[in-house]
Amino acid sequence: MIFPDVSWAAIAPEIALVAGAVAILLVDVQWKPEPRVLGGIVALSVVAAAVLSVGQWFRLDTPSDITIPFGGMIAFDRVSVLARFVLLAVTAMGVAGGWRLFERLGRRAAEALALVLLATVGFSFMASSIHLVMIFLGLEVGSISLYVLAGITRERPDSDEAAMKYFLLGSFASAVFIYGVALLFAGTGRLALLGQRAFLDANIVTRPAVLLIGMALVIVGLGFKVSAAPFHTWAPDVYQGAPAGVVGFMAAGAKIGGFAALTRILFTGFPLMADEWASVVAIISALSMGIGVVLALVQDDVRRMLAYSGVAHAGFILTGVVAGAAAEPGIWFYLAAYTIQLVAGFAIVAAVTGSAAGRSGLDAFAGLAVRSPFLAAAFTVTLLGMAGIPLTSGFVAKFGVFVSAWQAGFSWLVIVAVLASVVAFGVYLRVIVVMYMREPGEAASPTPSTAARWMLVAATVSTILFGVLPQPLLDLARNAFSV
Amino acid sequence: MVELVLFVITAVAALAGAVTVVTARNPVHSAMGLFGTLFSLAVIYVVNLAHLVAAVQVIVYAGAVMTLFLFVIMLIGVDKAEDTSEHLPRQRTLVAVLGAAVGLVVVALIVSGRFVWVPAGGGDVEIPNGTVQAVAEPLFTTWILAFEVTALLLTIAAAGAIALAYFKRGLIREEHE
After folding, report:
1. Burial class (CB in 10 A: 0-12, 13-18, 19+), A444
2. Contact A244, A303 (CB under 8 A)
3. Which of A153, A282, A321, A441 allows an S-S link to A159, with CB 3.0 to 4.6 Å?
4. Predicted confidence (pLDDT) per residue in B57-99, tens digit
5. A226-273: pLDDT as tens digits
6. Candidates A128, A133, A135, A145, partner chain B, best to mutate (most B CBs within 10 A)
7. In Å, how far from its chain's centre is CA A356?
8. Which of A361-370, A421-430, B160-169 is predicted least confidently?
């Protein structure tokens, strides 16, 4: 009799999240409570998952302490715990920032909240997987939840359209990814990343055609998920059509999961082929930065602007990926800083133009400084953080990945990145000017929910705090990696 | 030899079915083409000793999924006219050129590396045993976590279907009330 290699400690946070999702669905069926009660269950399970993650962190003594339970499916190491911290923060902030949406969804709030938790589980598994099949499953669990969330306000045709587009293009990207996985399996005979690395260590592949095609397809598939150019075309339409209250979580969760999987595959599975993939990733990075900032400049809809700026940020993060495993702490600092700003940005968009609505024209932000000084100030800090102004976390993040890329010999990429950052500043400045310089129209003053207010305070404080005092977070990130 | 003959017959049938799916004007014909493809693939699975996959293919895909397709087609109406005009100019040419380019690259790379198609294989690869017992044991030991996460997908599908189907009754309340 063979028994499975179960490690409850390794998946305890995920179990807490799944339990929360199931509890929400069952409680909703039985008692039909107010959304507030369901929100309480979300908070409970996210806090439980966070506490369990802290426990995992201290159970793992050193960065190199790694066990691989479940027959080699997932890694129990500090990297996955760090990724989960970022993910849980984004989930909590996403639900708090979009709380008005869940209130308005009525009876559908239970499903929406359960899907948010399940998406978190999927991306969390993506981050801890060390096996290509498991990465794919995590990707699908996360993505399919997001497809539904994009269309949760189906009575609006553009939400329906966003969900359909996201679903079709996302399925296509998943198919590309799984084809790549199949070719990597064909090339190495293994699906576990450490096994593939050991194979490449022990063998010289004289004709690596299958491996190279496989790797290219995997990069394309994950490039779609993190909305890197030229695989970004879904992002603006989806960000614009999906209900504002949930876009922040969607965008941030997909970026965290996608980059976690990409770095794991490239750094753990194929570090020996870095010469091959680094140049490809560098080109994708440069394209993302260029296309992202230029198209963000000409958008008249704040959400499309944030979508294209998200493409640019995917490019900035990829400059770190190009540098290899040494840049990993920098990549995670960037992901933490940026995803929090992203969630905060969409919480403000939701407060100003409606949490269930689609489209957020720039005009709706005219004179926001007069109508709601708090929101205008929070948005200003968030946008400056995204632009990477010194004394914000965005600056430290950009500096970190650029230095890594420079040291890895990709100076041309750093020059492109710095130029793109300068143009990107113009993108964000445009919104700030509209908020502070233009006369407010007839529009009413936006009133964010209490949860959103607290969440925005937390996001703003963290953007400034990690800009002025980045060391604790940097140390935390460095303590997760053995570099 | 028998294997080769079987493969050729089923492969041709599978391809013919796939072409029918795309080209048939009548959706029922498309569904039948898909049925042919799925069934031919099941035969190929049996030849490769993947008995469980073959059974699942016939029961789930050729059985349940195809029935569902036919139901949907019948409900929508077979003879409903459809607008098939294309809105993106030169899309077909572009797709043909790009598709051919990708195909050429793949073929060129594979031909140039054909002697190391599966370098990991070596001579000691066991022929996999795809019977039900042989699949069940690893499924519930090595792959237990993947199995459980797949169960999550079903939960998501159920919750998602309810959420998306519910929208007429639970109209979104007004903003800024």
Report:
1. exposed
2. yes
3. A153
4. 999 888 888 888 888 888 877 665 666 666 777 888 888 999 9
5. 999 899 999 999 999 999 889 999 999 999 999 999 999 999 999 988
6. A145
7. 21
8. B160-169
Residue that the structure tokens 């690259």 belong to:
B105
> Does pLDDT of A22 surpass 90?
yes
Q: Where are the domains of chain A?
A: 8-478
Residue type, A334: Y
Which residues in chain A have their CB less than 8 angstroms from residue B112's CB? 207, 209
How many whole angstroms separate alpha carbon A347 and alpha carbon A456?
8
Does the CB of B137 have a partner CB in chain A at under 8 Å? yes
Looking at chain A from residue 70 to 99, which residues have their Cβ under 8 Å from any Cβ of chain B?
70-74
What tens digit of pLDDT does each residue of B104-129 get? 987 887 777 654 544 444 455 566 67
Measured distance CA(A201)–CA(A205) in Å, rounded:
10
Kindly report, residue by residue over A269-319, the tens digit of the pLDDT.
999 888 889 999 999 999 999 999 999 999 999 999 999 999 999 999 999
d(CA A67, CA B91): 50
Most B CBs within 10 Å, among A146, A152, A164, to test the B interface: A152
Mutation test of the interface with chain B: which of A6, A25, A104, choosing the one with the most B Cβ atoms within 10 A? A104
Nearest-neighbour CA in chain A from B15: distance (Å): 19
- With beta carbons under 8 A apart, name residues in chain B contacting A148: 156, 159-160, 163-164
The runs of H, that is alpha helices, within A189-230 are 193-202, 209-225
The tokens of A329 are what? 């702490």
Please tell me the distance from the alpha carbon of residue A459 to that of residue A381, in angstroms, as a whole number. 9
Q: Looking at the complex, does the CB of residue A12 fall below 8 Å from at least one CB of chain B? A: no
Test A125 with B149 for CB contact under 8 angstroms.
yes
Q: Which residues of B touch A207 (CB under 8 A)?
A: 112-113, 115-116
Task: For A103, list phi and psi in degrees, rounded to 5.
Answer: -65, -40
Report the Cα A200 to chain-centroid distance in Å: 30
**In the numeric block, which tokens belong to residue B126?**
């066991």
Q: How far apart are CA B143 and CA A8, in angstroms?
A: 15
Geometric angle at alpha carbon A65, from A272 and B143, rounded to 5°: 75
pLDDT of residue B177: 38
